[in-house]
């Protein structure tokens, strides 16, 4: 950690995966160079709006019922437990709603079971896009930990690119991304708040209008900084010679 901080302080350019992490690197690490937030992007040829019933048919999911869910590592540290607990409330209050989960599971952390729970296992990249096209509401549950405060869940951009209404933990980059839509946010780790947010989105779905750059757009923003840095270094080497 000490060597990492030293390298970051001395670097001419640092890219971070989120804006909260950028602020940490500037304020806590004391970086001397340029620090740029460069969150993960998505392949818009894969993640885009699609015909919902077609996506459900390809995944073997039922038509004509509301589906909520998520994809990714179904681990405690990734914030899946509040969703498991919230599902009990949603299932009791909305007997028509189904839960869909995809991704690796954590040993010793049983996932919800029942006729209204669909576990799809590990999905290929394009199938994840189908899942986000099939759902009515996607869940982005992140805990209030160091990881949660400074990460940028890629599924947020993937879900939004598919036109999916979402609910998200009110922490870190998600708090910034959805600051203008408090109704989609819930207290991190709070199953009751997550259940309430899900029901709000089911009753009055809202899709945040968030601009999502593809990789070409992200690189275009950073390229001038890299070129300036390279030119400065070349000039310094020339003088030294």
Structural class: alpha/beta
Q: Kindly report the spatial arrangement of strands forming the biggest sheet.
A: 5-4-3-6-7-8
- Shape, principal axes of CA atoms: globular
Helix content: 40-55%
Q: What is the rounded Rg?
A: 20 Å
Percent strand equals 5-15%
**What is the overall pLDDT average?**
93
Total number of helical segments?
Answer: 10
Q: Based on DSSP secondary structure assignment, what is the total number of beta strands?
A: 8
Largest sheet: 6 strands, parallel
SSE string, helices as H and strands as E: HEHEHEHEEHEHHEHEHH
Span of the ends, CA to CA: 34 Å
Question: What low-confidence regions span 5 or more consecutive residues with pLDDT below 50?
Answer: none
Word description of this protein:
- With 241 residues, the chain is an alpha/beta fold.
- The chain has ten helices and eight strands.
- The chain has helices at residues 2-10, 19-29, 52-59, 80-93, 125-134, 146-150, 154-161, 172-177, 191-203, 215-240, and strands spanning 13-16, 34-37, 67-71, 98-102, 117-119, 137-140, 166-169, 185-186.
- The strands form two sheets. The chain has a six-stranded parallel sheet, sandwiched between helices.
- Helix 8 (172-177) links the parallel strand 7 and strand 8.
- The longest helix is centred in the C-terminal third of the chain and has 26 residues, at 215-240.
- It is globular.
- It starts with a helix and ends with a helix.
- The relative contact order is 0.15.
- The model has no long low-confidence stretch (mean pLDDT 93).
